[in-house]
Write a structure and sequence with these properties.
mainly alpha; 6 helices
Length: 134
């Protein structure tokens, strides 16, 4: 309970540093320009001429959109994941390995008759003389 109170106090104390959330004029400006399909980079670049000082960078605008205003994501030019997916997640790698294996229960029925060379497991195993049995 005491830790919870401390955490809430810390969060409230840091709210004063939130540049976008504490500036209603900036929020209106962001929404207006995003609705015109401006990129966060363009918006950040125009803030100095519009407001007279550099207010924030494009990454802050992206963070604000993704965390506080997800409904504004539709105005972003690129509709994709925030970060690139790793080359192989654990489950995808496991599925890939499984697909490479030849399962015995999926072999053709003709193999069960063992009439052809190669249908017997011992046919392709080198013997004592290091040559294939015939």
């Amino acid at each position: 309970a005491a830790e919870q109170r401390k955490a809430v106090k810390r969060i409230k104390a840091n709210q004063r540093f939130r540049k976008i959330e504490n500036n209603e004029q900036l929020i209106r400006y962001l929404k207006e320009k995003l609705s015109l399909y401006w990129s966060p980079e363009q918006i950040a670049g125009r803030l100095e001429p519009e407001f007279g000082f550099t207010v924030l960078c494009h990454e802050t605008i992206y963070r604000y959109i993704y965390k506080q205003q997800p409904e504004l994501k539709k105005y972003l030019r690129r509709r994709k994941g925030k970060y690139r997916r790793r080359a192989g997640t654990e489950s995808r790698l496991k599925r890939l390995e499984e697909s490479k294996k030849k399962r015995i229960d999926q072999r053709p029925v003709i193999v069960e008759q063992r009439e052809r060379l190669g249908d017997w497991e011992g046919d392709t195993v080198p013997g004592k003389e290091k040559r294939l049995k015939s």
